[in-house]
Amino acid sequence: MERKKYLLIVILLLIGMGSNAQSKYDRAIYDCYVKGDMIGWQQIIKLAERDVVAERSGQFSYKSPLKISLINYYYGVSGWLISQKENKQVMEYIKKGEEYIDVILDKEPDNATFLAYKAAFKGFRIGAGSFKVVYLGVQSLNLAKKAYSNDPMNIRALIEMGNVLYYSPSFAGGDKKKGIEFYEQAVKELENSGSTVNNWQYLSLLSSITNAYCESGQKKNALKAYEKAISAEPHFLWIKEKLYPKIIALRD
Fold it and tell me: Residue 1 falls within a domain, yes or no?
């Protein structure tokens, strides 16, 4: 009942607000993230996909704002589905995301944002159980490095460099300390851009930093990242329920 009620609210927002579809969906996605409602997230994806089909084709249709938002939504839901071991379902989103990304890179091969997204989706394929772990891992690392080389200030490139370095084994070039440094730099760039309000990726990034410091036993730094996340969004359930108890359990 609660899920249906939430979807109704989303639909009413889409009908009633006068701004473009991208901003409407982005706020609804943010609300889902804060509440941990990934079922609602997937329902919003369906609505956005419907609108993409209805979009008029044009010179820049390959890179319409709504398609870019959809890449971001596929990105967000894929990590969650992998954590739930929903490998078949996640592959559907991975393929859709990669299709949009490849069309953009075909026309803009040096675009750091979408090179970084491609690096991320290669990583998702590994998480979804691909047997080509080494091959995909090398591809993901090289794409992330290229994105960062093309634009060292690019937020998406910084995040994916952080992910690749943090989660790769040391023999494959992984370095958790450097990974955290890239995360922290991405936070600074996001904050400098003024794009932190109602931005689920900002909360996600702070969660990654909090978790990383937890795993390395750095209670003070973990608490600092946690408090920043809660200050940005006091109702952020996941970090309260999952990470805060881990922080408290750490020794000072």
Answer: yes
Cβ(115)–Cβ(157) below 8 Å: yes
Identify the residue with better confidence: 184 or 9: 184
Structural domain containing residue 15: 1-104
Q: How far apart are CA 223 and CA 240, in angstroms?
A: 11
Task: Give a yes or no: residue 89 inside a domain.
Answer: yes
- Structural domain count of the chain: 1
Q: Is residue 6 domain-resident?
A: yes
pTM: 0.88
Q: Give the pLDDT confidence score for residue 231 in this predicted structure.
A: 97
Cβ-contact 28, 44 below 8 angstroms: yes
Question: How would you label 139-165 residue by residue, b for 16+ Cβ within 10 Å and e otherwise?
Answer: bbbebbbbbbebbeebbbbbbbbbbbb
pLDDT above 80 for 7: no
pLDDT, average across residues 78-92: 93
Residue 106 Cα to chain centre, angstroms: 22
What is the spatial distance between Cα 166 and Cα 121, in angstroms, rounded to a whole number? Answer: 16
Question: Does a structural domain hold residue 146?
Answer: no
Q: In whole numbers, what is the pLDDT of the chain averaged over residues?
A: 88
